[in-house]
Amino acid sequence: QKEVEQNSGPLSVPEGAIASLNCTYSDRGSQSFFWYRQYSGKSPELIMFIYSNGDKEDGRFTAQLNKASQYVSLLIRDSQPSDSATYLCAVNVNTGKLIFGQGTTLQVKP
Amino acid sequence: KAGVTQTPRYLIKTRGQQVTLSCSPISGHRSVSWYQQTPGQGLQFLFEYFSETQRNKGNFPGRFSGRQFSNSRSEMNVSTLELGDSALYLCASSRDRGVGSPLHFGNGTRLTVT
Q1: What's residue A29's pLDDT?
Q2: A6 inside 8 A of chain B by CB
Q3: What is the pLDDT of residue A104?
Q4: Is the pLDDT at A94 greater than 90, yes or no?
Q5: DSSP labels, B3-69
Q6: CB-based contact (8 Å) between B77 and chain A?
Q7: How far apart are the first and last CA of chain A?
């Protein structure tokens, strides 16, 4: 079982819709969770992070964490074509070591 | 504030050679991590350095090594290059090793081994 799992996609949504990206992790001791966005040919860019159960909102982005279910998600409201990218979920399995999922490719169609 | 700087951006090497990649973290960041990214394997953790000491290591052979200097700058070395080492090597820095301290990535070094 992979430590961090994501559906590779592609996830296709129309412009203006809500995109929902999901991630599960195997280590119950994981303490913090990160979402990165990576455009083709570019390096990963931090979107947001969360370490408490519940929701964390930042602009059009909402991260949701459920430690009991070992599940973290990212919602993107009012999706724009510029949001088209690969979204990487990362989990802090012990201090200083982030493990990444394979990423979900999001396509936002005008 | 300058971001994470990696040099060189591109490298072409031949099998059997060795290579050294360099990373300058964001000013004030003391932790540096290295990742290998390939289309098939995604982002794979190589190692993490803090206060000039390797704190974590991923599942890579001993040909992959690194070090960190007193100014937090880091280098990664790969010896006896293999074709499978062709990848994007990403360096990332964070302020410290706390769980709420996110990684910030450099632009990467694209290594091609022929």
Answers
A1: 86
A2: no
A3: 97
A4: no
A5: --EEE-SEEEE-TT--EEEEEEPPTT--EEEEEEEETTTEEEEEEEEETTEEEEE-S--TTEEEEE-
A6: no
A7: 37
